[in-house]
Design a protein that fits this description.
alpha/beta, TIM Barrel, three-stranded mixed beta sheet
Length: about 260
């Protein structure tokens, strides 16, 4: 009997230690060539097994085929230089060396469609696939070309829409856009973030969702969370806007947090 409420996870799961070093952002792959390709598929199978055994209704690939939830997509685009990185402050709280936008960002081919097709063929359950949101993509780069976070976000929104349509065609039931930046840049969320997100989801017939979290459990995020007080009320800024948007679902972070509802 199907559940009254369909259960799912945020999307990401830890990678096996034989695939990538645990607890490390942008961890390099520990395998190469065909062994890496097969290792990724095995990791997806293990992620599915854990979710199905737990009774999860809508399963994901656990993002096992990606080094990072944002930059793996960006690596496949024209107009981004990964060789000469710049240091930027991500989410207004920690510094990281990131790739540089040096020209028009262009997607030449589907990036995750083949992985989505493998996921579809590996389970009988409904499946969800995650993509970074436009604002979070902008916030994980150094822009040396567009000169405007909004303009770059709209360029990424079009690319994301093309990618989302390819993933949907592979048989995905839910596409989720991850937007941790929505918990930081409230004016931009209001002014253009929601609109860019809707552009990324434009024309999709599968269910659409946005995931808004408080970041990885790295030291900079942990220290930032200590400054948020006894009640974390950031969602009060975004939920009314999302309620009026065309995005159907919201995935939020409550575990180990001080999120409160009123």
């Amino acid at each position: 009997m199907p559940s009254l409420l369909q259960t799912t996870i945020a999307g990401s799961l830890p990678k096996p230690a034989w695939l990538a070093s645990p607890g490390q952002l942008w961890a390099p792959w520990l395998l190469e060539g065909e062994r890496l390709a097969e290792g990724k598929r095995d990791a997806v199978r293990l992620a599915l097994y854990d979710q199905e055994r737990a009774g999860i209704d809508i399963v994901t690939d656990g993002e096992q085929t990606r080094r990072h939830f944002v930059t793996t997509l960006i690596e496949s685009l024209d107009g981004v230089d990964f060789q000469h990185k710049k240091t930027v402050r991500i989410r207004s709280r920690y510094d990281a060396d990131v790739p540089v936008v040096v020209g028009p960002v262009v997607r030449r081919h589907p990036v995750f469609a083949e992985d989505a097709r493998f996921l579809r063929g590996a389970t009988q359950r409904k499946i969800k696939y995650t993509l970074p949101g436009p604002m979070t993509m902008v916030d994980t780069l150094y822009d040396a070309y567009y000169g405007s976070r909004e303009k770059l976000a709209w360029a990424f929104a079009g690319i994301l829409n093309d990618e989302a349509r390819a993933i949907e065609a592979a048989g995905v039931d839910v596409i989720q856009f991850d937007e941790p930046a929505f918990n930081v840049y409230f004016d931009e969320v209001r002014d253009w973030g929601i609109a860019a997100l809707e552009r990324a989801a434009q024309g999709l017939t599968c269910a659409t969702a946005v995931h808004i979290c408080y970041g990885y459990g790295i030291k900079a995020n942990i220290e930032w969370k200590k400054t948020l007080g006894a009640e974390w009320r950031q969602y009060e800024n975004t939920f009314p806007l999302l309620a009026r948007s065309k995005i159907a679902q919201v995935s939020l972070e409550c575990s180990n947090s001080h999120v409160r509802s009123s």
